[in-house]
Specification:
The complex is a heterodimer of chains A (268) and B (317). Chain A is an all-alpha fold. Helices cover 80% and strands 0% of the residues of chain A. The chains are: A mainly alpha (268), B mainly alpha (317). Chain A: This is Sulfate transport system permease protein.
Chain lengths: 268, 317
C-alpha cells in the first residue's frame, strides 16, 4: 500500500499522540510528582516500617511461588508435551483457565474453597488460617501465575524433541542425569522467561490478593495493597505515588530483562 | 534387550487412545531410529538396563501429580465457586444475578468493555501499522512502550492515571468517578492486545498484492479497505476479543479511578467485592459465575472464528 507522505505523517502523529496521552504523559506526571519533593523524601516514603514490611511480604510470596511454579510448571509442561493419556486436552484448557478468570473471581473462589464456610473450612476451623493469612495470598498468586512457566517451557520441549535424551539414556544416563544434563539446559531460557513473567505478575497482583488478605499494615500488606491503602485509607497521596513509582521501577526492570531474554532466546 | 525396549514402547503407544498422529514435535519414529542406531553399537547394552521405561515419557505418577496440582489450585476453587452460586438452587442464582444492582454492574461492565474493545480495534491497528510500515527516530522505544501496560501492576496503572486525570489534575481534566475514567483505565491496560496481535500479520503480509492493487488504480484507502483489512481482520478480531475479555474482569486499574458509584461506574468486579464485604457470598459467587460465563463465551467465540478462518485459508491455499 503506497501512502502519501501527508497521510503517513498524519497516521504517525495520531498513533504517537494516542500513546503520548494514554501512556507517556501519565507516567511522566507520576515520576515528576514522586521525585519533585526531592530524592530524600521519596526514599523516606518508601522506607517506612510499613513499606519495608510490605516489600518483604511481596518478596516472601515471590520466594514461595516461584519454586512451586518452576517444579510443577516443568512437570506439567512435560506431561502435556510428552504424555499420551485420556484428558490431556482437558488439562491443556485448565492451564489456560487462569488467563480468563477475573482476579476478583479468583479471590471469591478461594474464599469459597478455603474460607471458614468453604469446602475445606475444616482446615481453617482447626486453626490453620488460609484465607486472611499468608497461605491464601500464596494460593491466589499461584492461581494467577500458573500458566506462565508451562506456556513458556512447552514450545521449547516441542522443539527439542527427545533425540538427545534418547542418546543420553543409550549412553547409560539415568532419568535424573538425563533431566539435569540434557532437558534442563535445553529449556533454561524458556524457563527463565517464564520465571520473569511469574515474578512480575506475583509482585503486581492486586485484585486476587486483596480479596484474601486481611490487609493490616506491617503484617499482611503487600506492595500493591500498600499503594491502595495509602491512597484510600490514609489519604497519603504522595506515599501512594512513591510506592507506585517503586513498583513501576521494578516493572521497568522486568521489561528490560524480558527484552534481553528475548534476544537470547532467538539467538539460540 | 533392545527389542524389548522397543516392544514396550510400541505397546505403550498403541495403548493410548488419545495419541494424535502428526502433532508437532512428538513424532516418535525419529527418536526410535536414533536410539536403535546407538544401541546397535552394542557397547552400552548393559548400561541401558535401568532405562527400559521410555526416555522422555511421562510416568503415571507425573500425570497424577499434574492433575492433583491443577485441581487444587484451579479447578477446586472454581468448582466451589459454582457450587456456592447455586447453593440456593437455580432460583437463588437467578435472583442474585437479576438483582437491579447486579444487572446494573454487569451492564456497565459489558458496555464500557465493548466501547474499549472497539476503540482498541481502531487505535491498535493504527499503532501496529505505524510501527511496521512507518519509519522514524525512536521507533524501537515506542515499540517497547507498548508492553508497559502488561508489565505494570494494575493498581499502579490506576495511580498513574489518577495523577494526571484525578482530583489534582495538573491539566484540569478530571475523569475520576466517571465512565470516561473507566474507559481510559481499561484502554491503558488493554493497549497491547490488538497491537501485538496485528503487528506480526502486518509484517508477514504480502505487499505485492497491495502494489498490484495500487498499479491497477486503487486509491490507498481502497487498497487498505479491500486488500489490507481483510488480511488483518482475523488478527484484529482476536486482539479485540482478548481485550474485551480482559476488560470485563479488570479490577485493580479501575478501583481508584472508577469511583464505585452504583449504576453509574460500579463494574461487576467491584460489585462482587462489595457483596463479599457485606457478607452476601451467594450474590458474589453468582455474579462471579456470570462474569466467568461471559469471558468463556467470548474466548470460545474467538476460537470458533479462528478455526473457521484457518480452515478457509487452508481451502483457498
Amino acid at each position: 500500500m503506497r501512502v502519501g507522505t501527508g497521510t503517513r505523517i498524519t497516521l504517525r502523529v495520531l498513533a504517537l499522540g494516542y500513546l503520548f496521552v494514554l501512556v507517556a504523559v501519565p507516567i511522566g506526571v507520576i515520576l515528576w510528582r514522586a521525585f519533585e519533593p526531592g530524592l530524600a523524601t521519596f526514599i523516606a516514603s518508601i522506607s517506612t516500617p510499613a513499606a519495608i514490611s510490605a516489600l518483604n511480604l511481596s518478596l516472601l510470596i515471590v520466594a514461595i511461588v516461584v519454586p512451586l511454579n518452576v517444579v510443577f510448571g516443568v512437570v506439567t509442561a512435560l506431561a502435556l508435551v510428552r504424555g499420551r493419556f485420556r484428558g490431556r486436552g482437558l488439562l491443556q484448557a485448565v492451564v489456560d483457565l487462569p488467563f480468563a478468570v477475573s482476579p476478583i473471581v479468583v479471590g471469591v473462589s478461594l474464599i469459597m474453597l478455603w474460607g471458614v464456610n468453604g469446602w475445606f473450612g475444616a482446615i481453617d476451623r482447626a486453626g490453620f488460617q488460609v484465607i486472611f493469612g499468608l497461605p491464601g495470598m500464596v494460593l491466589a498468586t499461584i492461581f494467577v501465575t500458573l500458566p506462565f512457566v508451562v506456556r513458556e517451557v512447552e514450545p521449547v520441549l516441542h522443539e527439542i524433541g527427545t533425540e538427545q535424551e534418547q542418546a543420553a539414556s543409550t549412553l547409560g544416563a539415568d532419568r535424573w542425569q538425563t533431566f539435569w544434563r540434557i532437558t534442563l539446559p535445553a529449556i533454561r531460557w524458556g524457563l527463565t522467561y517464564g520465571v520473569v513473567l511469574t515474578v512480575a505478575r506475583a509482585l503486581g497482583e492486586f485484585g486476587a490478593v486483596i480479596m484474601v488478605s486481611s490487609g493490616f499494615p506491617g503484617v499482611s500488606q503487600t506492595l500493591t495493597l500498600l499503594v491502595h491503602a495509602r491512597y484510600i485509607d490514609d489519604h497519603n497521596t504522595y506515599g501512594a505515588y512513591a510506592a507506585a513509582t517503586l513498583l513501576m521501577g521494578i516493572a521497568l526492570l522486568v521489561l528490560l530483562l524480558m527484552t534481553l531474554l528475548d534476544r537470547k532466546r532467538s539467538d539460540r | 534387550m533392545t527389542s524389548n525396549a522397543i516392544d514396550s514402547r510400541g505397546a505403550e503407544q498403541s495403548a493410548s487412545p488419545l495419541s494424535r498422529p502428526g502433532s508437532g514435535g512428538r513424532d516418535e519414529p525419529r527418536p526410535d531410529g536414533a536410539g536403535d542406531g546407538g544401541r546397535s553399537g552394542g557397547s552400552t547394552t548393559p548400561a541401558t538396563k535401568p532405562n527400559r521405561a521410555r526416555v522422555g515419557a511421562v510416568r503415571p505418577l507425573g500425570i497424577g501429580v499434574v492433575t492433583l496440582w491443577l485441581s487444587v489450585i484451579v479447578l477446586l476453587p472454581l468448582a466451589a465457586l459454582t457450587a456456592a452460586a447455586f447453593s440456593e438452587g437455580w432460583a437463588g442464582f437467578w435472583e442474585a444475578i437479576t438483582a437491579p444492582a447486579a444487572i446494573a454492574a454487569l451492564w456497565v461492565t459489558v458496555l464500557v468493555s465493548a466501547i474499549v474493545a472497539v476503540i482498541n480495534a481502531v487505535t491498535g491497528t493504527l499503532i501496529a501499522w505505524v510501527l511496521v510500515r512507518d519509519d522514524f527516530r525512536g521507533k524501537r522505544f515506542v515499540n517497547a512502550i507498548i508492553d508497559l501496560p502488561f508489565a505494570l501492576p494494575t493498581i499502579v496503572a490506576s495511580i498513574v492515571l489518577l495523577s494526571l486525570y484525578g482530583p489534582n489534575s495538573p491539566i484540569d481534566v478530571q475523569l475520576n468517578a466517571t465512565r470516561w475514567g473507566l474507559i481510559v483505565a481499561l484502554l491503558f491496560v488493554t493497549l497491547p492486545f490488538v497491537v501485538r496481535s496485528v503487528q506480526p500479520v502486518l509484517i508477514e503480509a504480502d505487499r505485492e498484492v497491495e502494489e498490484a492493487a495500487a498499479s491497477l488504480g486503487a486509491s490507498s484507502w481502497t487498497t487498505f479497505r479491500r486488500v489490507v483489512l481483510p488480511t488483518l481482520a482475523p488478527a484484529i478480531l482476536s486482539g479485540t476479543g482478548l481485550a474485551f475479555a480482559r476488560a470485563i474482569g479488570e479490577y485493580g486499574s479501575v478501583v481508584l479511578i472508577g469511583g464505585n458509584i452504583p449504576r453509574e461506574t460500579q463494574v461487576a468486579s467491584q460489585y462482587i467485592q462489595q457483596q463479599i464485604e457485606i457478607d452476601r457470598p451467594v450474590n458474589a459467587a453468582a455474579v462471579s459465575v456470570a462474569l466467568l460465563a461471559i469471558a468463556f463465551a467470548t474466548l470460545l467465540l474467538l476460537r470458533v472464528v479462528a478455526s473457521r478462518t484457518q480452515r478457509r485459508e487452508e481451502r483457498d491455499a
